[in-house]
Amino acid sequence: MTETMDARLKRMRMRSWRRGTKEMDLILGPWADERLAGMDAAALDLYDLLLEENDQDLYPWVSGAQPCPAQYLDLLSEISAFAKARHARG
Fold first, then answer.
1. Are the CB atoms for 24 and 15 separated by under 8 Å?
2. pLDDT by residue (tens digit) across 2-29?
3. How far apart are CA 48 and CA 34, in angstroms?
4. Strand, helix or coil for residue 68
5. Residue 65 predicted with pLDDT over 90
6. Which tens digit of pLDDT belongs to each residue from 40-62?
7. Which domains does the chain carry?
8. Which DSSP category does 66 fall into?
């Protein structure tokens, strides 16, 4: 049985908010809430792959402390900019 789009988005939002580390919850959760519904299938596939990565790898990538894999560079740059702007707003 294939996953419906609504079920996929719900699963991905939940996985974004329940990462295992609070830092990544607060980075990915709000981004997913705002951006997932507007993403095309290829972008959703890439984000799904990103969600499989360990937080111990993701946080240094998104924070810029370590270089990220090339396949995630654009996506993590967008997520990082979103998180920084959100943090600056308060």
1. no
2. 899 999 999 999 999 999 899 999 999 9
3. 16
4. coil
5. yes
6. 999 999 999 999 999 999 999 99
7. 5-89 (1.10.150.250)
8. S
| Helix runs in 1-90, H state only | 5-17, 22-35, 41-51, 55-63, 73-89
Could you give the 3-state DSSP secondary structure of residue 39? coil
C-alpha distances (whole Å) from 57 to each of 5, 44, 75, 81 are 28, 20, 15, 18
Nearest Cα residue to 15 out of 46, 47, 43, 39? 47
CA 88 centroid distance within chain: 19
What does the block give as tokens for 76?
């993590």
